[in-house]
TrEMBL record:
It is a multi-pass membrane protein. The keyword Metal-binding does not apply. This is Cation transporter. It holds the Pfam family Cation_efflux. One of its GO terms (cellular component) is plasma membrane. GO terms for molecular function: zinc ion transmembrane transporter activity. Residues 26-201 form the Cation efflux protein transmembrane domain.
């Protein structure tokens, strides 16, 4: 399996399984959309680049799951097209995060480490729930497998946010937040490249 949020070969699904997939995608979509607002709001309040970066990842995932709802019953070609859109959105979000990180370097301020840690833990719990839901359906479907890998990356990103919060509190420095924010952006950009490459490959089949 690829290390990115990338598609893999899929198969046609029964109507019953399609309905279950739709319910599952609705659940993870709502959870990610809600956490986007929570992380973005508290990222602004806490002055945290890591939280803002992770919130944009949540927003991208909500968009991903929305697209997935539209293509559950579609062909592999349609799913590849949807994954290509995911890749473009993810790439743009990653570039935005890099820009935010550079801005923080030139406009320094120490973020609220306690807030970063608490919201990071909340986001981790939500993403672990999404990861568990997606795991039950990830084998044999292009779009679900792509979403599952994204969710796995999100769990790693949440862990990074928590570490950033703890280090900010311990050292009283902005640098852990900036470094983790850049790290998340690198994961986002790497995922975007993987999605785009494999989606283009799938569209040629």
């Amino acid at each position: 399996m690829s290390d990115h949020c990338c598609p893999a070969d899929g198969v046609n699904l029964s109507d019953e399984k399609n309905n279950k997939l739709k319910r599952m995608f609705w659940i993870v979509l709502v959870l990610n959309a809600a956490m986007f607002f929570v992380e973005f709001f508290y990222g602004l309040i806490a002055g945290s680049n890591a939280l803002l970066a992770d919130s944009l990842d949540m927003l991208g995932d909500a968009f991903v799951y929305g697209i997935s709802l539209l293509v559950v019953t579609r062909s592999i070609q349609a799913k590849a097209n949807a994954s290509l859109i995911k890749g473009i959105v993810t790439l743009l979000l990653g570039l935005f995060v890099v820009g935010q990180s550079v801005y923080k370097i030139f406009v320094p301020s120490i973020p609220q480490g306690e807030t970063i840690t608490f919201i990071g833990i909340l986001a981790l719990v939500v993403n672990l729930g999404c990861f568990w839901l997606l795991t039950k359906y990830k084998n044999g479907d292009l779009n679900v497998q792509s979403a599952w890998i994204c969710s796995r990356n999100d769990v790693l990103g949440n862990a990074g946010v928590i570490i950033a919060g703890v280090l900010v509190v311990y050292f009283g420095s902005m640098w852990p937040d900036i470094i983790i924010g850049l790290g998340i952006s690198m994961v986002v950009l790497s995922s975007a490249i993987g999605i785009i490459k494999e989606s283009v490959s799938q569209r040629r089949i």
